[in-house]
Amino acid sequence: MTSEDLLQAGHVVKERWKVVRKIGGGGFGEIYEGQDLITREQVALKVESARQPKQVLKMEVAVLKKLQGKEHVCRFIGCGRNDRFNYVVMQLQGKNLAELRRSQPKGAFSVSTTLRLGLQILRAIESIHSVGFLHRDIKPSNFSMGRLPLNCRRVYMLDFGLARQYTTGTGEVRCPRAAAGFRGTVRYASINAHRNREMGRHDDLWSLFYMLVEFVNGQLPWRKIKDKEQVGLTKEKYDHRILLKHLPSDFKQFLEHIQSLTYADRPDYAMLTSLFERCMKRRGVKESDPYDWEKVDAVSGTTVPTTITCSQANQTNPAQMKNDYIAGNITQMTVAASNISGTEHLPRQNDVDTAPIATTEPLHIKDKVSRKPLSLYMCAIYPN
Fold it and tell me: Closest by alpha carbon to 120, among 287, 313, 331?
């Protein structure tokens, strides 16, 4: 910690959450590990300055409240504000998928691990779309594994600060703006995002596609290019079929499907889900199989540690696990310790990864999803 940090070790927020150490930070805020003095559990506190121009915690909390009960979205513990900062208190989680991939010997996941992670991520994306929101920053560091025995094999979607409601209060799809501004992280952003076009549901799936390619290849072709515009041009010219080399042949259908979608189109989530499941069945992949980071080291004979309490004995199918409510908590939210919001490779202060907050527009396209407007979820987010 430095003197410039919003919180210091030992500081107690709202007479309940004691700061232990800083564990992450970025252009939009800071993350601290803390302890809940009531429940004694470890927590994460996500904090943003009350004076910074780009404030995202309101959106994050609003989206999380609307997503409560979804399998891959966790409960949050609490939130508040004072004259210096806004904050959200979350349950501390395990390593994010970017860290886990980089920890592998060749910096890549096996097809088995990739398929199972991809299926969970797809379900998480479908869940946020089902309530009328786009994530707009789908990337490995915005997904983490649970850190407790009951949830250590479940993937959690993190960081909703860049989310956008794509539906109206009547459930219709909003008409796209002529120019929306760049959103997301350069490496995983869709071509539409690079072109500053309004992002739709398919753009989140494009980012998932790039994630899957990186999972099995260990890298993406534009990984060393720092300029956002150049990365966009590279993606436009690149034959994406080449990216399928190390993925099952079925993923040609995944690519062709997202290529066929336009802004207002609803992706065929059922077809994509069955694609993952079909690939797993053909390869004999089971949900209970160990993930790459859980496999026993051939030399030492020990299990490679990645989360604090996850054990090989807990081989629970994530689809069978219900929300893991902790005694004394009304709500819960997770965060990967090293991630804040889209800061994985290029600094936000240079507006490389994420552009300023977008403007709004009133026109709509029919596609009923959710009838409740965002305004209903924005009230009373930061009680004093």
Answer: 287
43: in domain:
yes
Print the domain residue range for 143: 95-291
**Catalytic amino acids?**
137
pLDDT in tens, the chain (384 residues): 676 899 999 999 999 999 999 988 866 789 999 999 999 999 989 999 999 888 899 998 999 889 988 999 877 889 999 999 999 987 888 899 999 999 999 999 999 999 999 999 999 999 999 999 999 999 999 999 998 899 999 999 999 999 999 999 899 999 999 989 999 999 999 999 999 999 999 999 999 999 999 999 999 999 999 999 999 999 999 999 999 999 999 999 999 999 999 999 999 999 999 999 999 999 999 999 999 999 855 445 555 554 444 644 444 454 444 443 333 333 334 444 444 444 344 433 333 333 333 333 334 444 445 445 544 444 345 554
CATH number at residue 53: 3.30.200.20
38, part of any domain: yes
- Entry pTM: 0.81
- Asked whether residue 111 is domain-assigned, the answer is yes
Residues 170 and 261 in one domain: yes
Amino acid at 373: P
C-alpha distances in Å from residue 317, one per residue of 41, 55, 256, 287, 367: 25, 37, 30, 6, 33
Please state the residue numbers annotated as binding site for ATP: 46
